[in-house]
Known about the structure:
Layout: H1 2-23, H2 29-35, H3 39-47, H4 51-58, H5 62-68, H6 71-98, H7 100-119, H8 127-143, H9 155-170, H10 176-182, H11 186-196, H12 199-226, H13 228-241, H14 243-246, E1 250-259, E2 262-272, H15 279-303
Antiparallel strand pairs: 1-2
Amino acid sequence: MKTLMKKQLVLAVKGALMGAANVIPGVSGGTIALLTNIFEELVISIRSFDIKAVRLLLSGQFRAFAAHIHLDFLLPLGAGVLISILSFSRLLKYLFEHHQFYVWSFFFGLILASVFVVLRKIRVASVSGASLFLAGTAAAVSMAFLAPAQENVSLLYLAVCGAVAICSMILPGLSGSYVLMMMGNYQLVMIDAVVDLRVGVLLPFAVGAVIGLVAFARFLSWIFSRFHDQTIALLTGFIFGSLSILWPWKTAIVQTFVAGDQIKAKVTGYTYHAPELSAETAIALAVMIIGAVLIVLLEKSAGCRNKNSSLR
């Protein structure tokens, strides 16, 4: 009993880390799942939401349904994600308003260390793997120079945002929050709607997220089982390329626009520059190191038990 409770508590903590990561533009919950060795089990569990699961549920076979969808895994993990998103959004709002530079620094160090940790999961080095790593890096870097769309509150667009963002959230290296920023609805969904619990925004977003997640998990499961090393290489490229989004020494390019009877502002891009010799830079480097050490400790605590497991 104690072992089961401990396992579920550990899953809840991992879910909380995934939820926190998904709130940060440029950081992916999928990266945390990969580092803590639950990524493949997560994909398997999501993939199990199929016709058989529906039949078991409708026929009242609740125990069989729970076993089929790995509910003992998904429930504590999902609870951790949900609680983290609801609570961390408020903290993030404060941190971005008062300490944005150090937030970027912390996650830059965290993601940089993640690249080396995830690369170790590649079993055999190959030219195709190296090529896919470079392709993933280029794709992620190019996102840093895209101009974000304007905010859109239509139900269909919110559902599309949910589907696209959730796929990015479970895909290591691609930030669902950053994708939402590019689609123009990051502030609306991840900050305003979550903090104020705006059901009219969150419900269509959640419907799109569920549909997109189930469909994408099946595709990801298929490609991961057949091209394991190549997939890891591509995902690691995504993670490495996302560093261009997280670079702390940048200045936001802000554009104002009219939305109804309100004047709003949005970030349309950044101008990047090199760090200067200062106390602020020294603190930022220290924060980066803390982020990197956290990833190393996280990988060591979770990586010994479940190395390089394959999707069934």
